[in-house]
Amino acid sequence: MFFALALTLVLSVAILSSCGEKEPAEPPKIPDAPQRISDIEDITKGYFGESGSSVTIPLSDYVNANGCNVTYHVTSSDPSVATVTAENGILTATLFKGEGSTDITVSVQSDGKEAFALSFQITAKAYTKIACVGDSLTYGHTWANEAYPVYLKQLLGSSCEVGNFGLNGASVTGTNPSLYIKYAEERQYTNSLAFDADAVIIMLGTNDSKDWSAASPNFESWYKELIESYREQNPDVEIILVTAPPTLENNKFNIPNDVIRDQVCPIQRDVAEELGLPLVDFRKVLEEYEGGYLSLIRGDAAFDGVHLTADGARLLARLIVEELYKL
Hints:
By secondary structure, the chain is of the alpha/beta class.
């Protein structure tokens, strides 16, 4: 009896003793020092009109924190060209009017001490002239005062010159001269080249759809030739392509919406990708427009059914400005 009680007490003490023991704590892990992943390449960034544009750079693409508490201190050697900030690991450089270059230094700091620095250069490039090339959707048909280049000018400000080189009835191919004309053979085209624009917006193809069987063999190659002609005139020119918008059924001009959707726009998208050009997919935007796009195309189909309303033109101008600021 006594032996059994003693054994029970010994076991109890042993159990209590083992429950109170803790696993030996692992020594705290000391973070490795931050490491440079790669260098930031020099940047040439343009801006249009009176508003500055911004460049955003995720610094995690260039720095591996390695578990350290990393902070960034950024400076610009010439704040009159661009100012820089770094918040939440994102460097933002805001460019101002006036061309020039500035050196950007990013000090990568850990525990208050600099681990290393990254440096690169930003060159500001002011754009002041934009040529709008196209058919009546650009010119404005009989509503030239409500064409998208008018609203583009308003958005970009007084320091940016916007030239409307749209031509009623223009097409890429001009396969039916009694109805439509080849843009590259007309005075507006020559004038648009002579304008020597910093950026060219091209929206053509709607009229080609009406005689697509004749236009289709040459549409893509002539479309590319037209684009390249602006590059030959000015190798530094920025070019933005715009897809042809939808037309309403039974529209006044008998322009087939299905041909634009299934033939013309896919070629425009492919050419933009092949040539590495920004694209405003205006057709896609209108197809996905909340509430439908009927308010953006003029009148009922019997009256017009093709050309943009003032609201439609304003929307296109905003989309183009968004692309301009990305350049």
